[in-house]
Amino acid sequence: MIERILVPMDDSEMAQRALVYALENHPDAEITVLHVVGGPSPLGGAATSLALAEDIEAAAEERAEEVFDNARERAAEYDVEITTEVQLGNPARAILNRADDFDAVVLGTHGGSLADRLVAGNVSQKVFRNSPVPVVIAR
User: Fold this and answer.
1) Sequence-ordered alpha helix ranges (H) in the chain
2) What is the mean pLDDT of each run of 10 residues along the chain (139 residues)?
3) Are the beta carbons of 22 and 8 closer than 8 angstroms?
4) Which residue range or ranges hold the UspA domain (predicted)?
5) Model pTM score
6) What is the dihedral of CA 120, 122, 127, 128, to 10 degrees?
7) What domains can be seen in the chain, in order of their start residue?
8) Which of 40, 42, 54, 91 is 20 to 30 A from 123 (CA-CA)?
């Protein structure tokens, strides 16, 4: 039985669909929304600006807050409370590092721009291939 679900999210529509899938199909599960900040991007823009912040953790939390607010609003529609977590670094690696603590990972088919996917690779594909727990790719 799936009791704990990790839902990695960015600000994409596909990430929202993944959360909805988890909420609709596992209404009694504990859901943790993970947002990874500072991953690779063209010319290192996001990672570089984060590295220049005085308090990296506070800057990461601030960047994640919009994603978390949207996720909380969506979960409230299903009368579910979620927990949130911010990680720094490479998205696929951060997701895989946390996956062992969950029964499943539910994520969208892709997120970010085409340029981000070309530079960073397809996160969902990397997670699917390397996860120690079942992975659901929501479309």
Assistant:
1) 13-25, 45-51, 56-77, 91-99, 114-120, 123-130
2) 96 94 97 85 47 67 92 97 94 96 92 52 88 94
3) no
4) 1-139
5) 0.84
6) -160
7) 4-138 (3.40.50.620)
8) 54
